[in-house]
Write a structure and sequence with these properties.
Elements lengths: L4 H16 L3 H13 L1 H24 L1 H7 L1 H23 L17 H13 L2 H10 L11 H35 L2 H24 L15
Helix pairs in contact: 1-7, 1-8, 2-3, 2-8, 3-6, 3-7, 3-8, 4-5, 5-9
Length: about 220
């Protein structure tokens, strides 16, 4: 067996924890689904999926080795990601801020723009960058051989979990928005909870001093 069930389970749990934590992907997918419908949300999710594939390819080709060789670059990316999450937290918590589930008017985007926005939102998502740079490599066992295949399998597990959960979120977004529409107190609670989680995640990311592991792709397979 190329990867152990322990490694698969570990990546699946981390992937699930990240996807249910409010972040750029969730905010974009929910807001687009609520304003333009499930089809628009699913098209946006297709763009997010391609973003995951880009990160997986970069990980297999050795992106973590680059950050290991240039720690300052990793620190810069991490702090930019933390700043982005803090900005999202502020826009959610500030006076006059809106819940992501609040029904509002957004410009109706065409299929191509929906796809590209989903792609760019994921590529600029610091949570996903940290996942592929620092976490998934920890579950790769160089002694098991074919480390590139291990990276692909574990990356596929993460993508499968993330897309499944996000698809459920897209499908249920309209129903959740309708439920909250006549319950302003719940809407405020949801907004406060999401903003707080984003802020805490940003602080955690900023103070984390873990260094990314050497890229599995850079290790010689047996």
């Amino acid at each position: 067996m190329v990867v152990t069930w322990t490694a698969v389970a570990g990546v699946a749990v981390i992937a699930f924890g990240l996807v249910v934590t409010p972040g750029p992907n969730m905010i974009y997918l929910v807001s687009r689904s609520v304003s333009q419908g499930r089809a628009a949300g699913l098209i946006s999710l297709a763009g997010v999926a391609v973003g995951f594939l880009c990160y997986l390819l970069a990980a297999v080709l050795g992106i973590s080795a680059v950050f290991l060789a240039v720690p300052a670059l990793y620190t810069t990316v991490k702090l930019l990601g933390a700043a982005y999450l803090l900005w999202l937290a502020w826009t959610t918590l500030r006076p006059g801020g809106r819940s992501v589930f609040a029904v509002g008017e957004l410009p109706v985007d065409r299929t191509r723009r929906l796809f590209l926005m989903g792609l760019m939102t994921n590529l600029l998502n610091p949570k996903i960058a940290v996942l592929y740079i620092a976490l998934i490599p920890q579950f790769v066992d160089p002694g098991a051989g074919r480390v590139w295949l291990q990276s692909l399998i574990l990356g596929a597990v993460q993508i499968g979990v993330a897309l499944s959960v996000n698809a459920v979120i897209v499908i249920l977004a309209g129903a959740i928005a309708a439920f909250l529409a006549n319950r302003p107190r719940w809407l405020r609670v949801q907004r406060f909870a999401m903003g707080s989680v984003l802020g805490l995640l940003a602080v955690k990311l900023a103070v984390d001093d873990n260094v990314p592991a050497a890229s599995p792709a850079g290790l010689r397979s047996a």
